[in-house]
Amino acid sequence: MTIHSVVIQKLLTTNAHIGRQVTTHHFKQFTYGFRNRQSIIDSDKTLICLRNALNFLSCLSRDPSSSFLFINTNPLFQPIIDEMTSRVTSLSPERASSLWKMRGFLTNSCSPKKFRSRHKKLVFAPTKMPDCVVIFDTERKSSVFLEAERLGIPIVALVDSSMPWEYYKKVTYPIPANDSVQFVYLICNMITKCLMLEKKKDGAKGTGKKATIKDQVESTSESEGSASDEVVVVPYDNLAPMSCADVAESKQLLDKLVVVKYNGALGKNMGFGGPKSLIEVKNGSTPLDLIVNQIQSLNSKYGCNIPLLLMNPKNTHNDIVKALEKYSTLDVDIHPFEQGEHTQHESFVSEGGEDKWQSSKHGAHFLSLMNSGTLDVLLAQGKEYALVVNPDNVAGVVDPKILNHLAQNSIEYCSEVTPTTSTGLINFMASSLQGMFKASDIMNCLDLEDFTSDHSEKSVKGFKFIDTRSLWLNLKAIKRLVDTSALNLDNLSTLKLFENSIGISIPQSRFLPLNSTSDLFLLQSDLYSFTEGMFVRNDARVSPSDPSIALGPEFEKISDFKRRFETIPSIVKLDSLEVNGDVWFGADIVLKGKVVIDASPGLTLRIPGGVVLEDEEINDPTDI
């Protein structure tokens, strides 16, 4: 009999697998089925979540200054909790229980107020915030969840099949199980052994204080010196393709992937009242349609299941949820999440620097989502990789070729970059196996609002690559860093946290930001078409770079943009277009070379349909 079988049998003897008659929708992922009208909790998933929680507590206890707060209101559990807390360093459970009943045990802890209980005893709140809250009895709807969430304190809690979503989503490390006395005894015994084992390790080393993750990273970065500022950039064309013959192997790999998309970018600067994900970019399709169609195509082709997680702030959540109704018949598992006010924007955002090229604003929201307990659920479902899609890039691709490269080479972190037109690296990277570049060679577009299709040579001067802000992440590595709070440390570059990180140089046609109507002009032209949700560049285009488009303020709003073009001109052979003033375009116009159209104030220019403008500068109707 294997060790796993013994552990599962031990769980079964505690009745941890017996759920309630009512099973909430979010808890179904932990259930095995129903028997005698009672839900049966999957013991394998209970074991996985229990290991994750214990690993987190063990990592946290390595810091001698860390503290835990155990919350319990069930009198049957109290002797077990007392025995555990007598053997480990923690806050008194009796004191915590009293403070819990009075509320405000955390948020009032920094004030010198005194609290009086029913028995007329003075009770003071803890003088120090605990590093973790462990809740054994979650049936009673305690304010502990609300206060811990407000203060950013991680929660480890037993959850059952009837726990409401508003409380479940606040648990950082959920342990799905029936809260029987036998199971509480088992988990308390395991917590005690884990914490005592970590304490014994520190004592055996004789160091007194174990180095923290922050100290380890800082010492490593100092010893490595300038080597840590270098990044390996691999050309996309040199990646090994996935084997089309072995569909089963491809399905197994794609089943490990989850796609995450943030929908917080708004289209207000273009006169659009909703999120950019709902702007029609081509033939009535929106950026959200494109990513859903890509996943649908992969699911149908390989028989896999790639879930799509949508992170929506409060101001866009309702619009996104309404738009999802049209996907109800598709074979795509979509989960929208509304981001709360507790999201830590600064936790994953760097302030720049030579070795922080890979940072991204939407990475903070991804980290917040992972801290909410979603990471443990994904790992329990067998997911190992996450693609965090840039919210501004409509040409992002869910690429199995990149995923295959990450899996074969044990890559933990990968950022998609694209060569700048000013460096001449496009041909070089196409023929090179790989290149070692300094992190300062990569332009970190932390805010792409000003980076549009009309970007000039000056804006990218001195850079060899542009960070597209599309990230491929190993979820097990994220789990390791989240458990040790390494991703929350200030002034640490992400490159130094991951054991194996690279950049992949993708074609420029796969980096198409949507920040202005000039970008929209490029997307709606004949230069690009799309199939299965992916933008494809016209083969007739000779130049490797896209034309520079600069439309004046008269075209700034989408409504004005649509009125001024009967149809979008052909721009396959266009180098640059600059339009200013009151200009109107007819149908079937062809633009070539460098075209400048500048209407004087008070003058209306109408470009007739069917004309061909090549290297033209037009200021009045006689120039046409």
UniProtKB/TrEMBL annotation:
GO cellular component, as recorded: ribonucleoprotein complex; ribosome
E.C. code: 2.7.7.9
GO MF annotations in UniProt: structural constituent of ribosome; UTP:glucose-1-phosphate uridylyltransferase activity
Keywords: Nucleotidyltransferase, Ribonucleoprotein, Ribosomal protein, Transferase
GO terms of biological process kind: translation; UDP-alpha-D-glucose metabolic process
Domain of life according to the entry: Eukaryota
Catalytic activity: alpha-D-glucose 1-phosphate + UTP + H(+) = UDP-alpha-D-glucose + diphosphate
Chain intervals for the UniProt region annotation (Disordered): 205-224
Family recorded in the similarity comment: Belongs to the universal ribosomal protein uS2 family.
PANTHER family registered for this protein in UniProt: PTHR43511
Protein name: UTP--glucose-1-phosphate uridylyltransferase
Source organism per UniProt: Gossypium anomalum
